[in-house]
Amino acid sequence: MSAARDEHEEAAADIAAVEEANTAFYEAMERGDLDALSGLWLPGEDLTVSCVHPGWPVLTGRGEVLRSYALIMANTEYIQFFLTDVGVSMTGDTALVTCTENILSGGPAEDGNALGPLVGQLVVATNVFRRTPEGWKLWSHHGSPVLAETGEEEDEEPSS
What we know:
six-stranded mixed β-sheet, 31% helix
């Protein structure tokens, strides 16, 4: 085999591994599995991880980031992610995943026994991964809401 083909196969394997790590992140959220989610983030505080949830300030440090996910999981009865527009870029031991999170979520109903109304939301996300001896680990997650169009037309003539 040629060296170029070997490099191409290695790059394809890296991209597949990053996509797998990205999928595992969202699946852990859907299951409400904080232990699995914790294992997907870079360990230790030597490389400070960061996270921006839609509408939240920047969270830095592994402890603060994981506490935010514990809080979200504790207050979300149901969540499902449908990822679209997924793109992976890599340079060295760093990978960047961009995607649109099509989120369906809901909390408990007011009567306490059923699931409350489901709400849909669009979020564009950037997930940064670092290669470690244990595989690709999240370094940063940033989610930003996509503003929905109101459907109102702005055809009004300016007043003079």
